[in-house]
Amino acid sequence: MNEADIPIDIHTLKLQDWLVSRRIVPKNIQPALKDIRIKISDALQDMPSHDQLILLLKGANINYFHCKQIVEILKQTEKDSKSIFGRYGSKRMKDWLEILRLYEKDNIYLAEAAQIYVRNVNYEVPSIRRQMSKWEQQYEECLKRSQDLNKPESAFLAEHTTLLQHLGVKGENLKEEFIEALKTLPTLHAESIKNIKTLEEALNLYAQTTGQTKQQCLPILGHLMEFGNTTVYQYCHKEPPLSVEEPPLKLNLSETQSGRSPADNEVDYGDDNGGTSSTISAEIIDFGELNLETETELVNEAVDIDWGGSESTAANAVEINFDIPIEEYGIVVEGAGMDGGIAKGDQAYTLLDSPTYSERFTDELCELESFLKMRLYELRHLDTSSNIMFSLLDNISTHDEASTCKMLTNVEDILTAISCQQTRHLFQLKHSTKYGDLLASKLKQMLKAVEKIRHTRETLKQRAQELKQERAALNPILDEFLNQTKQLQQCIEEDISKRYKCRTVNLLGGLN
């Protein structure tokens, strides 16, 4: 086999050691390169204006092959200084020719080219590619995170819309809208118990089983079935009031209480006279010293008490006239029946609107529900021959499993109706002074969260665009390094090939 046909394969990582081991380049080239760099810096201070030179010097650090191109350009620009002996009198030309001479001495140019080539292959190009890959990954992450924010934004908006729908408001002016929504609360209460008559059969069964009347076992349920959602006054006194003075609504969303105010030093005794609050300064009132013995003597002297039993005292007794009209004493006797009093305070609320009686009514429904569930369990699981079943036959003989299930369904429907979201929110809003602030704060926080999510999404999108631009800006830099590396590889392979009878030289492990 001809020796010229055998290729020379050199691994990139061992290129510099290969050149040194074959004594092609010296082992230490740094002092010579330092002198060359100084001369290049001085020569660049005086360069002619030429487009190719400007383009050539715009790139990376100048090496031997750049210097050869510069000399070729100077041959055109400095041709007037060429003598008849073929030498150039221009200082520019002399400086660059000297630089080429220093490069070619001891093959410094080949060692430098190998050094630059290895650095580009092992460090520069991979570093740029890693940076590009990193920015591509960050770009995709920013887009993904911005898309993922759509889900919590939709959740907050849906929750905000649902809460507004439950409250029956639009969210523009909460205080006025809350007051307007509270006017619908009686209608909601009436709607929730419109089918309460369907519980009559279940109530009769429960009363029959417990051996009590309907008013005794579940009094509020029985009252609602008979009279509807009346006032607490009518439920307690068994007669409707002449008039109803419901406590004023306490709803203030504009002021936030922090700390104690001067009014906290006063004792509030509730609302009276049309809602006018009577306050007494919390000061010590001195009523003086009270002598019980002296007071008793004064009373005994002022009133001579006749304990009866003696004729003398009876004769001296004053005759009492019982025929005096009661109008003279200013006593007003209220009528009976429909001529009741005035419902004030908590008794002015309806049964479903009163915190106390509404909770008791819910307890009664739960009690009835538990009773029906137990009955249904007994009908499904207990044997007809058991003693327990025989003891219950008299009470449930007319109610089979299907009828009991129907009664249970009716109870559950009423429980669901009185516990709907809108009714619960409006109920708390009416009877709790802080609930309105909590609702307003919750709605505001939802909108703030949505705004923050949108701002974050816009920030992520802007960052994604910046990363995309930075990634695109690396493309020309990478292309420049790739072109430089390929040119260096070609020059190194050709130079080594000339030294070994034009054998084929392959640099392995280079760029793909």
UniProtKB/TrEMBL annotation:
Give the domain of life: Eukaryota
GO CC annotation, single? endomembrane system
Q: What keywords are annotated for this sequence in UniProt?
A: Coiled coil
UniProt key word Protein biosynthesis: no
Keyword Manganese set for record: no
Q: Where is this region: Disordered?
A: 253-275
Its BP terms in the Gene Ontology are:
regulation of mitotic cell cycle
Spell out the coiled coil positions from the record. Answer: 443-470
Q: Which InterPro entries match?
A: CDK5RAP3
- PANTHER family linked to this entry: CDK5 REGULATORY SUBUNIT-ASSOCIATED PROTEIN 3
For this chain, the family text in UniProt reads: Belongs to the CDK5RAP3 family.
Query: What name does the UniProt record give this protein?
Result: CDK5 regulatory subunit-associated protein 3
- Source organism per entry reads Glossina palpalis gambiensis
